[in-house]
Model the fold of this input.
Amino acid sequence: MATLREIRSRIGGIKNTQKITKAMKMVAAAKLRRAQEGIVAARPYARKINELLRHLVTQVDPSLNPLLRPREARRVACIVVTADRGLCGAFNANIIKAAEQEVRTTYAAQFADHHGLKLIPVGKKGFEYFKKRDYELYAKHVGIFSNLDFNVARGIVAEVTEGYLKGDFDKVVVIYNEFKSVIQQRIIIEQLLPIPPEDVAADHTQPLSQVEYIYEPSSKEIIDALVPKHLNFQMWRILLESNAAEQGARMSAMDNATENAKDLLRELTLSFNNARQAAITKELLEIVSGAEALRKAG
Done:
């Protein structure tokens, strides 16, 4: 049986850990609120740019823009968005597992080619996992979530767009966690390039305007200008979603850790009281036995 000193030491250690998990939960809650505000603020712009692009794409031939033109996916790039830090439950493990499953099933032929599939990990945890395994990394982006900025999204889009136009890959997909609630995240596998037709022509949440606009200088030139903005925003939205999902997962994990610490403290306190009671009883018995022995000896 553990001694009183050992139990007291364990209780002190767990209390210190509990303070840390409480503080981490509060920090995650504050970051989650900011991340949610960012998602809400971005939605009106998302709806408007998508509405305008959908209207424009009906006026011109989509194949005129190379980022809208589909082609055979002989080479594929997968952007896998994880977190830079741990202590967020199964957040990172789930997204890595989903990415591996997607690579080895949907893109099994490209993966077997060794040069037909390239990974672009966004987040330190994904990079650390994939660099140690049999995956070809095209690029990496780590340490971005501590100070998330729109320029990060622009940099990722510029990188994959350049690779797509050069022919390094024929298709780009993004695998990330979509924020649903504090206790729920949903893994999404989304095509980024070429821009799928449904992204610009099949959004039923907003009806297409029946007004015929006159575009200056031309519909094609405006589409060429809007497509990069659309891609930049889609990547920015994905990073915001993943960041919010990460903070929600961390908040939930730290709350569970705090509750587990409470349960463990309750058990250890009971063990400490039992051990203390046993020690007191033993001392009383020794005193009574000593007094009885002295009485008989006298």
Remarks:
- The beta strands are 76-81, 117-122, 171-181, 184-193.
